[in-house]
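pasting for ref
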Amino acid sequence: MDELIPKFEALGLTAEKAKETANNKKLAPTLDSLITATGQTTFSKNTGMLLYKLAAKVTKEKSPHAEYIAKAIASERLASDEQVSAATKFCAKNDPAENEQAFDDACGVGVVVGDAEIAAQVKSVLDSIKDTLLSERYRAQGRALGKVKSAPGLRWADSGKVKGAFDAQIQALLGPKDERDDPASVKKAAKKAAPKAESAKSNEPRKWEPASLESMFAEGEISRLHKAGENPQIKPELMAEHLRATGGQVITRFPPEPNGFLHIGHAKAINVNFGYAKTHGGVCNLRYDDTNPEAEEQEYVDSILEIVRWLGFEPAQVLYSSDYFQQLYELAVRLIERGLAYVCHCTGEQIKEQRGGEDKRGPRFACAHRERPIAESLAEFQKMKEGRYAANEATLRMKMDLEDNNTQMWDLVAYRIMFKHHHRTGDTWCIYPTYDFTHCLCDSFENITHSLCTKEFFLSRQSYYWLCDAVEVYKPVQWEYSRLNVTNTLLSKRKIQALKTAGHITSLDDPRLYTLPALRRRGVPPQAINAFVRELGVTTSDTVIEVGRLENHIRGALNECAPRIMAAIHPLRVVLENLPESHFEELDVPYNPRDDSFGSRRVPFTRTLYIDRSDFRDVDSPDYFRLAPNKTVGLNSLAHPITCTGVRHAADGSISEVLCRYENEGSAP
């Protein structure tokens, strides 16, 4: 690939970047073909960067007119990122050579936005938010620039000139930056101006203000996803049929496998899928991915729907991948008939070797059965269906692309044999489709518009699209976001099951776990979980979130909804010796001292009361602030404190009773 390095350097890439690109087996040939298509050997820096970005973005399948776009860049018909993006979008649905004028109109070719027009457009935007700018000054500068850049009249304007006009007008409106634009100074001045108000406010409980569901989708890439009907198809009639069926409505799905309880990470997936649909006026289905009868149980099926509803969502439909077993089988036959699938008799170890070994870095080679005749594979697949092979003796594999750098294109298994009873279809089937075969096709059957999943499925996007196109069915769009990782939590189903097997827990809803049934059993309100995941937003960046952030939301939610109830889990008897045996008072104890709307209840106060054993020590220490011999402490809701005067022990040496004095006469010693 060394011969490519000088060609890439001619684009303006550094020697190091050119070498790195030449070694990229996917990017290098694409970029080389685009350079060749231009017929040029030298390029301006801007042209070179646009060609590089185009090569990184396009594929032959997705952008069949990429060479046309490359020529338009080289001739400087397209001179900005915005124009190139518009060009790729136009070419995804149209042939630019057939209607060059439509291409030029869609991409702003020849549109010149003069300096005077730029200044006028910038002024118009700034005038519309003038009050905000005068109030917040330079703190609102970023938002103001975003509004300017999104102004329709500036779409094709030179971005450098737009920024220059913006800076000049902001400077003229606000003047130079001063102490008013320093966040620390602003905060200090506000605090100094109203110290009493600030002091009073600091004594007030901070109100819990959870993020809204809609806020999850207001920023970032997820706020710019395609609209229903904009995803290209291998045949136009597939989209036409899809739109007839859906009316252009957004449809998403939450597709858990019923092989365990949902955990805190699934709460994000539920909010993303149900929330995106709700925010865009659409619907979300719950679809159980029940294609592995070895691991699925009805207990988990019931629990999943229960938890989805507990979090406040209602599926438009409750579906199962097993609903489509017959359709999936028929598409598998179609795939074989098109020469795109074959029955394989290799062992798991042999398949691993064919894919480059354990580390997948060795040589890749085709299976011996890959080129068997279509009729033979059809007959073998029928034998699999009839149960004439034992488990693991045969699989159906998709004939994909062993030369592709993407491991998800290395002839994935589509069907395997399992003589297991299925919780819904019983013993009707002994062959079951894999996730890689099932998932995209079920999305297609259900007319899903946005297949939203976590980033571990990023490589699967290519095989997802490949299979939909291979059998010529409607193709949804897959988009990936980062999964939720929380410190000090164990979420792996396998590891949690190991804890149960070892006897450390008795059930998968043990309150110490972070499965959603466990959190519910612990008393965590569902609104706290929703607020936690919504606050994080939806991004593609991998992060690990401190569990303390979840706990903050739990406290906030409980403050809003939970009455304060007293209980002594390990009760210890306390006798107030200076009160008569007949002493009886009724205390009015509020359910929430900071919110009168919760009301109150009447609690009896007598000579004998109970505290939790953890609230008493018979040997005091400086860092212990609860009851101990000769120590005075207050009790919740009592007018006066109590002082420990003695301790009684049981025969086994344990503390059986604490003797105290109620300090209702004079001051405590």
